[in-house]
Amino acid sequence: MIEASNLTKRYPGGLEAVRDVSFRIEAGQMVLITGHSGAGKTTLVKLVSTIERPTAGSLVVNGQNLTALRRSAMPHVRRHFGLVFQDQKLLFDRCALDNVLLPLQIAGLQRREAVRRAQAALDKVGLLAREKANPIALSGGEQQRLAIARAVVNRPTVLIADEPTGNLDSESAAEILEIFADFHRVGVTVVVATHDQTWIERYHPNVLRLDHGRVVA
Ligand SMILES: Nc1ncnc2c1ncn2[C@@H]1O[C@H](COP(=O)(O)OP(=O)(O)OP(=O)(O)O)[C@@H](O)[C@H]1O
């Protein structure tokens, strides 16, 4: 469960990108964050995923108040989150499999188990046959799917994405939506910032609409 109470983020310079935002996301829910460009979607995603700290308000995830935690405790908490950003930050000097292996190596898994899990993650996103490919040789949609495999390989309880279909054609965007829907179906909490009308129509009751940093619907 994710509970945000009166979250506010003021950037240096004074701009309040997120203002007094409160919501509750139950475990296993799919929730979309939408709104015009500059409404604060990315900032809210960064707050929920603990990349940014709020200026005011609190964020409780699975009963733990993250705003009260020391910075040193954050890496541990972040393991609950799988993050997918529009700019996927893939490593272009390594093959697809090695990109997905990286979080497991950081977590200290044995090589054999790590490879097994990374291949299972690639299989879930339909990329197992491309495990040896360099990301540069993959299409935009495939690169996004690779980023999803990397995000889920540590089995996060919450999958958070910022405009995951932003740069994709409608066919690739539909594939990405189905992958997120599959994770939602097996009980993963999914939070996605998106403009994509297909998603918004499908998950209509669970849409948080922002306008100038405030929740308006
Ligand atoms: N690091 C930062 N420092 C200062 N201002 C920022 C920073 N990041 C974002 N902003 C400002 O905060 C506001 C909200 O930005 P944010 O990126 O959260 O919006 P968004 O809804 O995700 O927009 P878009 O759909 O265009 O990505 C904007 O006015 C933006 O310029």
UniProtKB/TrEMBL annotation:
One Gene Ontology MF term: ATP binding
UniProtKB keywords: ATP-binding, Cell membrane, Membrane, Nucleotide-binding
Domain (ABC transporter) ranges: 2-216
Domain of life of the source: Bacteria
PROSITE patterns: ABC_TRANSPORTER_1, ABC_TRANSPORTER_2
Entry annotated with the keyword DNA-binding: no
Residues of the signal peptide: none
The keyword Nucleotide-binding is annotated on this UniProt entry: yes
Family annotation (InterPro entries): AAA+_ATPase, ABC_transporter-like_ATP-bd, ABC_transporter-like_CS, ABC_transpr_LolD-like, P-loop_NTPase
The name this protein goes by in its record: ATP-binding cassette domain-containing protein
Organism the protein comes from: Dechloromonas hankyongensis
